Structures are given as structure tokens and as C-alpha cells.
Amino acid sequence: MRIENRQRLVVGNWKLNGNLAENAALLGACANAEVRVARTLGVCSPYPYLSQLQSVLANTPVQYGSQDVSRFPKGAYTGEVSAGMVAEFGCQLAIVGHSERRALFGDSDEVVGEKFLRAQQVGLTPVLCVGETLSEREAGMTEVVVARQVGAVIKIAGVAALAGAVVAYEPVWAIGTGKTASPVQAQEVHAFLRTYVAKHAVEISSKLPILYGGSVKKANAAELFGQPDIDGGLIGGASLVADEFLGIWQAL
Ligand code: 13P
Predict the structure, then answer these.
(1) Which segments of the chain have a pLDDT < 50?
(2) C-alpha distances in angstroms, 30 versus 12, 25, 143?
(3) Quick check: 90 and 58 in contact, CB under 8 A?
(4) I need a labelling partner for 239 at 20 to 30 A (CA). Which of 19, 76, 146, 177 fits?
């Protein structure tokens, strides 16, 4: 049964996309959407655009933030951007542990845990991504993998930290491939994740928003969001097209 007081949200992850002109049109459409507290809309852009997000979205209910943060708070770490710097732009959100960062940039479970902690320490809501690869799914390892990924964060940040966080289940084989997990497949993993967190803290688990990500479109969003443990979506490609993105959000 759905818990009605759990936050429901759709968050866009622009990845390495955008330019000032296109962003302005997309953000304008988001700013004009009738966002309600019970149905949150969020946007996570590349770092250089955070000031543009702030100027368009700061006085709207749309939440915004970054796609990553450094595991370090400050110092001699060339090229890094700290959670504190992100927070200075009025951001609410920070994605951590996206599978592209894990696979392409070497973010281990421990590094993701540290990033989660850094984001939370400055008042950002971490959006913790977890998910298995195709070979892990085929080997029957899905639950082991997502439990390990969430478990590492609980070990580093403590289970209480999940009280102010969002989890996003993104099966790697469904990201950018056009292959969506079926609503039943996604629900199974979401329910597993909720039960896994409940073993540490029941109350936190029942309130934890768990988003689905991986080829979500306007056409498949409603069925996914209708599952009892799917509380919204983390949207890649479709978040770059205003009509698709807002259509997905309206399906919430
Ligand atoms: P797509 O929606 O493009 O499959 O990407 C999902 C994703 O990785 C969101 O973080």
C-alpha cells in the first residue's frame, strides 16, 4: 500500500548537456509549471549552470542542484567542486553515486558514502543512485549489489542520514538504452530496498522516497509511478525536452 505522506518527486539529470540559451528555455518551462509540495520537480545541471538555475528557479518551488560533489570539503584538489560551493547557489539537491560516475570515474561505494555525507553536512538532500549492471542481473546479483551500495552509505553516514535523503534505483542496463525495467521488475527492487532499510530503521524506510531511473518517458511514467514503492523518477534524456519532462512530472 502506498504511504501517502512520502515525498514524491521527479528530478532531471542533465548529465553533460546544456548551454545557456537552451537551458533558459527549459528552465523557464519548469519555473512556470504548477509545482506543488506533494509533487516536487527538480533539476540537476552541470556545475557552471548552477547560477543560471538559481536566477530562474530560486523563487519557485522547483528544487535544483548538482550531479555530484567532491568527497573533500576544500583544499588542493584541482578540478573538484565541494558540496559547500554547490549549497552557496541556493541548491537543495545533489546526486551522488550515479552509475556513470561509478563506472567511468571510479567512484567506489566508500567514495559515494563520503560524498553523501559531504552533501548532507551542508544541508543538501543527497539523491543516492544505486543499480546493477546487466551481467549482475543475469547472475542473480541485483539485491546483493543494491544492498551493498546502500549499506556502504549506512556504514559511513549512519542510517539516520537516510531520513533526509532520496534513493534512486537505476538499473545500469536501462540507462540511455531505451530499455525500461518493467514496472514489476522495478517494484521488486524498490520493495527490496525499502525492506533492507527497514531492517535498520522502519520509520525511516517507510518515509524514504525511492525514485526509478532508466529510460523513463512520458509514455511509460504513469505505470512506473503507479507502483506502491516507486515514489517518482530520476530522468536523463527526457529531462532535456520540456514537454517530455513536464509530462513525466504530471504523471506523478
Ligand atoms: P535516461 O533517462 O537517459 O535513461 O537516464 C537515466 C539516468 O541515468 C538518470 O540519472
Answers:
(1) 1
(2) 11, 9, 35
(3) yes
(4) 146
What is the number of alpha carbons within 13 Å of residue 59 lying toward its C-beta? 1
Eight-class DSSP state of 133:
-
> Distance, CA 198 to ligand 1 centroid (Å)?
27
pTM value is 0.96
What is the CA(14)–ligand 1 centre distance, in A? 9
pLDDT tens-digit series, residues 122-151: 999 999 999 999 999 999 999 999 999 999
Instruction: Enumerate residues lining ligand 1, CB below 6 A.
Output: 13, 98, 170, 175-176, 213-216, 234-238
Instruction: Compute, in angstroms, the gap from residue 221 CA to the centroid of ligand 1.
Output: 13
Whose Cα sits closest to atom 9 in ligand 1? 236
Bridge partners of residue 166, in order along the sequence: 127
Question: Which residues lie closer than 8 Å to 77 by C-beta, 6 or more apart?
Answer: 70
CA distances from 245 to 27, 201, 208, 248 (A): 11, 33, 23, 5
Residue 215 CA, closest ligand 1 atom number: 4
Show the cell assigned to 12: 532531471
Residue nearest to atom 7 of ligand 1 (CA): 236
